[in-house]
Structures are given as C-alpha cells and as structure tokens.
Design brief:
Length: 338
C-alpha cells in the first residue's frame, strides 16, 4: 500500500481522494488554509477528504518528516516560490508532484491566478455563452479536479515504472491539454472557435430543442445522420440536397434546426427518449437537480455514497466515475502517521 502525503487546496485534495479510492494510505496535512468554494466548507471536506487521515499543522519540520516516510507527495501552492519556501526540493519522497497555476519555471511561475482567470487565459471563457452576450466561465471546480486527476495519473505512472522523480504540473498547461478539439480545428483547418450558445456548431445538428414538457439535447455526428431521419419520421431528408453531408448541414443549419424544432415541439421528453433509444441516436433530456439525484442509471452504478457527518444523518455525495474494490476503513489506525 502506497503512503501518500497531500498538502494544498482542491487540486491536491482531489488527487488524494483518487489515491484513497485506490487503497492508498493518504495523510492530508491541513495547514489551516481555507479557500473559497462552490459548496460549503463541510461539503467540500466530506467530498474530498472522507477517506483520509488528517494532521493539522503548519510545522515545516513535521512536514519534512512525513515527506520522508511517504512514497508519493502531492503539494499544491499558489506560486513556485511558495513551494520553495516549504522546502519542496529538499524532501526525499521518491515521487513528488508540484501543483501550481503556471508551473515552477517560466516567466509566469510566480504569477497568482484564480481558476476563473486561468480558464480565461486558456481560452475556455471565450467559447462559453451566447455570441451577442458576455462570455461565461465554467462553474464548480473543473480546473482543480482535472489538475488533480492528471497529477494522480502522472504519479501512478512513476510508481509503476519504479522511478524516483519530480513532476511539475501547471494548471494552465492542464487546461491546454484538454482543449484538443479547439487546437485541432486551428492546426488542421485554420478555424478559430467562438461562442455559439448551446450549439456545438461544427457538428450539425448539435443543439438544445424545446419539447412539450422540457428540453432535450441532440448531438448528431455524421454516423448518426441516417438514424436521425428515422427518429424524425422524415426519411426524405436522406436525399435532401441541403443536408447530404455535415458541411452542407452547417451551411443550412437554420433550416435544419427549424425543421427539428417543429417536429419535437409537440412530443414529451419520455416519448423522445424512447424513440431515441429505439433509433440508437444520442439524445439527452435536460434534467433538474432533483431528477439527477434520482437518476436510475446513477443509482444502479452506485454513484452516490453515504458518508457519516458529525454523528448526524449520513450525507450523500458523488462517488467516482469508475467502479473498483472497496475503500479501506478510514477508522483503522486513525491518528497514527507512519
């Protein structure tokens, strides 16, 4: 069982959460820092740290001692200098992962940035929202959790390879590594993406449509065009010269969207979902939060987990996007740090 020492905010916390889920012995060193979050402090602690052991201290000698006993160290800081001041380079942990907004090198190494600033710098904000309105940013902790997942993958790779190494992971680079569709459009066809609301734009039709009792989203890549015509009960669209391929559908998107909107407007979400499943096309019903919590697929996949919370009723939180063996009992050896 790997021993993992975790220091830092939400990115380090999510990385440690993944290690705990895979059976590692994770100790989080809580240095008393509290970051603004999209949920309450209690909710974030339960979601990120439920299966870890904790030590509350900012003692650098204790930190170095724990680092010396760990197999993997995950350390998140606001700047490169902050990690230097903690003593990151002096710790003797075999695998050390540094998480900072811009990495530990380069001209921006000591710039400070919040997640919404990094999302703007990475081009994400430019793409989100209606074309004639102000751009939007992603909600939640997308940036931090993606960084934590990448740190988990990189650290595991080093352990599996039996390598002792330092891994320098910048959050800006993490964002750029996830924008492959945007960069591919530019490098391969010279096209710049821009805001188009809920319309994916390059694949038509990929758009929200109103129906009798709600909204549905269609995402029809070229392979699904033929079954879409069956779903719409309009097989004649197969020979309509306006829609013979995706390029033509892009040129005639308004006509196609109007046609689909007319067809779906009088049908219920249940009807449309049954037809979509029968025709094997990707259609999703826009759900309320209450409906997401009661989704039968998520329940069957055991996505929600119950966690104890201060001797009160269990709190239900999201689990993981994968299934594997049970997490080790967090009460075992609590308070004993290697």
């Amino acid at each position: 069982m790997d021993k993992v020492l975790e220091i830092g905010g939400f990115a380090a916390g999510y990385c440690g959460k993944l290690f705990a889920a895979s059976g590692a012995d994770v100790v989080r060193m809580d240095r008393g820092e509290r970051l603004p979050a999209w949920a309450s402090e209690k909710a974030m602690d339960l979601f990120l740290h439920a299966h870890k052991r904790m030590v509350a201290s900012s003692d650098l000698d204790l930190l170095a001692a724990l680092a010396a006993k760990a197999d993997i160290l995950i350390c998140e800081g606001n700047t490169a200098d902050e990690l230097d001041q903690l003593g990151f380079d002096d710790w003797v942990t075999p695998v050390k992962v540094a998480l900072t907004p811009f990495g530990r090198t380069g001209p921006k190494a000591n710039w400070r940035a919040s997640a919404n600033v990094l999302l703007a710098m990475g081009g994400y904000t430019h793409l989100i929202g209606e074309p004639d309105r102000a751009p939007l940013s992603l909600p939640g902790h997308y940036l931090e959790f993606q960084t934590g997942a990448l740190a988990y993958t990189a650290a595991n790779s080093a352990r599996w390879a039996n390598q002792s190494t330092q891994i320098d992971l910048g959050q800006l680079e993490t964002l750029m590594s996830l924008s492959q569709f945007t960069t591919v459009r530019w490098h391969c066809v010279g096209e710049l993406r821009s805001r188009h609301g809920s319309d994916f734009w390059f694949v038509v039709p990929s758009q929200l449509f109103a129906c009798a009792d709600g909204w549905v989203y269609l995402n029809i890549v070229p392979a699904f065009w033929d079954p879409l015509t069956v779903f719409l009960d309009q097989p004649e669209l197969l020979i309509d010269p306006r829609f013979e391929n995706n390029d033509l559908r892009m040129l005639n998107r308004d006509a196609l969207h109007a046609l689909i909107a007319t067809e779906l407007a009088h049908q219920s979400t249940d009807e449309l979902l049954r037809k979509a499943e029968s025709c094997r096309i990707p259609l999703g019903v826009v759900l309320s939060f209450e409906q997401v919590l009661a989704d039968p697929h998520l329940e069957a996949r055991q996505f929600w987990q119950a966690l104890p919370a201060d001797n009160s009723e269990p709190v239900y939180t999201p689990a993981y996007p994968f299934l594997q063996g049970k997490v080790a009992d967090p009460e075992v050896n609590r308070g004993v740090f290697w």
